[in-house]
Amino acid sequence: MQPLRITAATLAALATLGLTACQLPAPSDDPSWTTQAVSIYRTEAEALDVAAGRFGPVPLALERGADLVVLGRSSCTSSAVKVRNAQGVTGWTPASGLADAGPCPLPA
């Protein structure tokens, strides 16, 4: 049995395939979603970090702002908004990505 030979071309093809497979598909067929997309984060602290320019938190979902149900803010001065998407995922997003920041404080 001959040993497996991996050429540079094979490695390049595998790397390209791997990178392509990891890309997220567009959430809709509408190409304008990229200019209207907002990220939903697990906690208010993560959304506040992103709003302050500290990028590191990983979003739970990427949605069009118009497709989100705005639940509100924890305080009237908060720059993070609690939202829910059509699939029922609840999380937080920076208020700057939404037209309406909703009620403050959050309804009980």
What does this protein look like?
The protein has 108 residues and is α+β, with helices and mostly antiparallel strands. It has a domain of 63 residues. Helices cover 24% and strands 20% of the residues. The chain contains 3 helices and 5 strands. Strand 4 and strand 5 form a beta hairpin. It is elongated, with a radius of gyration of 19 Å. Keywords: Signal. It comes from Roseateles chitinivorans. This is SH3 domain-containing protein.
**Count of distinct strands:** 5
Write the H/E string, N to C: HHEHEEEE
Average pLDDT score: 79
Based on secondary structure, the structural category is alpha+beta
What overall form do the CA principal axes indicate?
Answer: elongated
Provide the gyration radius in Å. 19 Å
Percent range for β-strand residues: 15-25%
Helix content: 10-25%
Number of discrete helical segments: 3
Low-confidence stretches: none
Could you give the order of strands across the largest sheet?
3-4-5
The biggest beta sheet reads: 3 strands, antiparallel
Q: Give the termini separation.
A: 70 Å
Protein name: SH3 domain-containing protein
Organism: Roseateles chitinivorans
Signal peptide: 1-21
Keywords: Signal
Q: Which features would summarize this protein structure in a list?
A:
108 residues, alpha+beta, 3-stranded antiparallel sheet, two-stranded antiparallel ribbon, 5 strands
Quick description:
This protein has helices at 8-21, 33-36, 44-51, and strands at 37-40, 61-64, 69-72, 80-84, 90-94. With 108 residues, the protein is of the alpha+beta class. A hairpin with a 7-residue loop joins strand 3 (69-72) and strand 4.
